[in-house]
Amino acid sequence: MAVKRTRKAGPRKAAAVKNVAPKAPSRKRVLFSVAAEPGSKVAVSGDFNNWDTVGHPMVDKSGDGNYTASILLAPGVYEYKFIVNDTWSIDPNCVEWVQNSFGTLNSVLRV
Known about the structure:
Helices cover 0% and strands 39% of the residues. The protein is mainly beta. Strands 2, 3, 5, 6, 7 and 8 form a 6-stranded antiparallel β-sheet that branches. Strands 1-4 form a two-stranded antiparallel sheet. The model has no long low-confidence stretch (mean pLDDT 88).
């Protein structure tokens, strides 16, 4: 009769635990575009930049009055406006607006 040898169980090493932070939602590049007179000062501002009065400057690369700005935004719902020569205006190409606390409208963007 054969004797079966068994290995004594010693203390087990604890598995290494990684402290992993939750993954942040991936941001998406959003292109804002608005038509204005060539040579205008144009920016986009909204709740994504705390309604900064300077906003994100927009550029007219071809000089034809088509101003654009590209911004990375996390998924969510944002309100915004364009600032054209110090005048706040909604996005004429946006189909969704909400009334703001000033009694005017903000454009709505869903990312």
